[in-house]
Predict the structure.
Amino acid sequence: MKTIASHRTIIASADGTGLLSHAGSLLLLKTLHLTGLDRALSAHLER
């Protein structure tokens, strides 16, 4: 059996475009929601 691995280069840029940027944003939002930090931040900003 021969293993064939493809070598793909992942390029991350800080310009805010591309799938990586959107996936990171979604991951951050999900993390904030699951930990309750979104509600805590909202409550703090209402003061």
Q: What stands out?
A: The mean pLDDT is 76.
